[in-house]
Design goal:
Elements: E1 9-11, H1 17-27, H2 32-35, H3 43-60, E2 64-69, E3 75-82, H4 90-121, E4 128-136, H5 145-160, E5 163-168, H6 171-179, E6 183-184, E7 188-189, E8 195-201
Parallel strand pairs: 4-5
Antiparallel strand pairs: 1-2, 2-3, 3-4, 5-8, 6-8, 7-8
Amino acid sequence: MTGSAIESIEPASRDDLPEVAEVLAQAFFDDPELRAFINGGDRARRLRAYLLAEARLSLENGGAVDIHRGGNGEVVGAAIWEAPYARETLLRTVRYGPTMLGAVRLRGLLNWLTHRSEFERFQPTSPHWHLVRIGTAENMRGQGVGTALLKGRLAVVDGKGDVAHLESSSPMSEGLYRRLGFEAVGSFKLPYGALIVPMTRPSQLRPAVVTRHP
């Protein structure tokens, strides 16, 4: 992956979202965080359905879905972001809620309701970009796709002087996030042994230097 990788990052269209869901479902199949909410039989299909609804809801609420394409034009990496002042409405919740509930089922819903406050209490109190998901196709892992996806969106975040936030569920990912300026702000555990480390990246907008002349 060359230094031009960031230039190949582009916003996903609605037509791209099924591919996005497929790539993310592969990336998150063994993820301990999502296993706490989507587990049991037919998990791969339920993951795809949930992630597709999540991507669509994020776009409709003013967020972003960034993608990286492979040499044949296929989606090989994707990131879902919630934007500051996300415009969630009751209509959108009703539209996508049943799909998400069908994916997590009753046990997953109960786990989410039990642990939702843990996710919320570590989030910045100021408006911020929230990285919901990021993942790459199996054959592209270790080639810098995830880093390029992160740097592409963080360049936008930095240009606005905004804060970014995420939840890490693996030490390897946590190391990457630290290198890009994220700082751990706590930790908590989910069912099945998942250790979640919320991380926040402060605004990178530096005040202009004022030169005073005598």
